[in-house]
Every structure is written in structure tokens, then in C-alpha cells.
TrEMBL record:
Binding site for substrate: N11, W12, K13, G181, S221, G242, G243
Subunit structure and binding partners: Homodimer.
UniProt-listed InterPro entries: Aldolase_TIM, TIM_sf, TrioseP_Isoase_bac/euk, Triosephosphate_isomerase, Triosephosphate_isomerase_AS
Reaction(s) this enzyme catalyzes, per UniProt: D-glyceraldehyde 3-phosphate = dihydroxyacetone phosphate
Name assigned to this protein: Triosephosphate isomerase
Subcellular location: Cytoplasm
Pfam families: TIM
Matching Gene3D superfamilies: Aldolase class I (3.20.20.70)
Length: 264
């Protein structure tokens, strides 16, 4: 049995202003509280837009919520003349636990390279913020059956010069681009194939202990109706949820996949 604590992370993308964020988070917290959710069994995180983070922090602190939160991107630098960028030090100061790095939407719309992703990972780690490194192939790469090779190259590029101690703390999210926001989910077998390959490569790059410590999430059209079958796979340790995380009741159901898996 794995000792990795499953993580359900809701990537809100560019949705919900700071007032809507408060309402959504409150509803999520109430729903999980009503269900007596055990946060030590399944960790729950939300990744709101930057402009929501201070409000989220205030609510989490005031109500002593066990939900944790993160950002969707971070600068590769810690301070200076980088207009529009957000320092990892600012995120740490806001009590941020996680930051998504290298999401496919940033790779696509902002031309983020593996080199930049690597610099951002180092920057986040330096400030004590845990990277959720996003990797995954597009449809053409999958059709060419080059998806494993492609994704592992992204992984290696992102982890260059990262020590085993640091790598152990990182979360990796496998998000096949063709399954994001399309309603088309990879099968549990597809998710397992890649999660296992990622863990195998981590064992080669570092060692078995490191590979066994890293949580590997699946992302792409995850819903309460398909999460349990994906989570049943041994190398899948959670989900990075986009659209479905905007609905607090649906996201709470996703976080509570264990209760519907046994028909409760
Ligand atoms: O990109 C995603 C999470 O980061 C997945 O988005 P969807 O769940 O909307 O497919």
C-alpha cells in the first residue's frame, strides 16, 4: 500500500473574482464539513487566480479551514524589474502551499519552455512553495504513440539540477492536452500507464525512495462520475481538476471519491 496522501487540487484557471472565490470556498468548506471529510486521508486544495489569494487566505485563517490553496503560476525570479510577474516570496507570504508550473495552457499561450519551467520550479522551491509540475502530450503525439517519451522528456527537463531531497516534495500532474476541457477523459489505464512511467523515470533519475514519495496526479475532464476508477490505479495519487472544481458540491464529491467508491 502506498503511503502517499491523495491530493485533490482544483485549478480554477481564469474564473471567479475574489468575491466569488469566497462564496465558492465557503460552500466547499461547508459541504466537506457536513460530510465529515478527513483531510488527513485526502488533501483538498484550490488554485485560484492571483487576485483572489489574499481573500482566500483571510477566510482560511479566520475559519481555520483545513483546505489548502495555491497559485497557478509563479515568476522564475524573486524580485526586480519584471513587470506583471509574481514572486514566489509573495506567494509564500500569503500562506500558499502549492503552485502549478508548466500547465499546458501556459506552455501553449505563453510559450513556456521546459527550461523556463525548470527555472520556475527552482524559484518556487527556494521560497518553500511546492510545485505541481504539469506534463502531458497533445493529440498528435498520442496518435504517433510518442506520448510516454514526450511526457518523460518534459519531466526530465523540468527537474534538471533538482536534488532528490527537493524532488521528493514535488507533485507531478499528468494532463494529456486532448483531455483538458474536452469532456474526453483518458482511461484509468492511460492514467496508470503514464503515472507508472513517470515514477519509473524518477527512480532512474534519483532512487526508489524518491520515486515512491512523489505524488502523481491525473488531470483532464475529471468528474465525480469518473474519479473513483482513476483513483483505483496504484500509481495515481490524486487529480488536478479544472471545470468541475468551480462547482463546490461537485468538487467535494470528487474529494470524497472513497465514499462513493464503496457506495456510501
Ligand atoms: O487543465 C486541467 C486542470 O489543470 C483540467 O481541466 P478540466 O478538468 O476542465 O478538463
Amino acid at each position: 500500500m502506498s503511503t502517499r496522501t491523495p491530493l485533490m487540487a482544483g485549478n480554477w484557471k481564469m474564473n471567479l473574482d475574489h468575491q466569488q472565490a469566497i462564496q465558492t470556498l465557503q460552500k466547499l468548506a461547508w459541504t466537506l464539513k457536513d460530510a465529515k471529510h478527513d483531510f488527513s486521508a485526502v488533501e483538498v486544495a484550490v488554485l485560484p487566480p492571483f487576485t483572489d489569494l489574499r481573500s482566500v487566505q483571510t477566510l482560511v485563517d479566520a475559519d481555520k479551514l483545513e483546505i489548502v490553496y495555491g497559485a497557478q503560476d509563479v515568476s522564475a525570479f524573486t524580485s526586480g524589474a519584471y513587470t506583471g510577474e509574481i514572486s514566489p516570496v509573495f506567494l509564500a507570504k500569503l500562506g500558499v502551499t502549492y503552485v502549478a508550473i508548466g500547465h499546458s495552457e501556459r506552455r501553449e499561450h505563453h510559450n513556456e519552455s521546459d527550461r523556463l519551467v525548470n527555472a520556475k520550479i527552482k524559484s518556487a522551491l527556494g521560497a518553500g512553495v511546492i510545485p505541481i509540475l504539469c506534463v502531458g502530450e497533445d493529440i498528435d503525439t498520442r496518435r504517433a504513440a510518442a506520448h510516454v517519451q514526450h511526457t518523460l522528456l518534459q519531466l526530465e527537463g523540468a527537474l534538471e539540477d533538482i536534488s532528490a531531497e527537493q524532488a521528493k516534495t514535488i507533485v507531478v500532474a499528468y494532463e494529456p492536452v486532448w483531455a483538458i476541457g474536452t469532456g474526453e477523459t483518458a482511461t484509468p489505464e492511460d492514467a496508470q500507464e503514464m503515472a507508472e512511467a513517470i515514477r519509473g523515470r524518477l527512480a532512474e533519475l534519483y532512487d526508489r525512495d524518491t520515486a515512491d514519495a512523489v505524488r502523481v496526479l491525473y488531470g483532464g475532464s475529471v468528474k465525480s462520475s469518473n474519479v473513483a476508477s482513476i483513483m483505483a490505479k496504484p500509481d495515481v495519487d490524486g487529480a488536478l481538476v479544472g471545470g468541475a472544481s468551480l462547482d463546490p458540491e461537485e468538487f467535494a464529491k470528487i474529494a470524497r471519491y472513497q465514499s462513493h467508491a464503496v457506495g456510501l
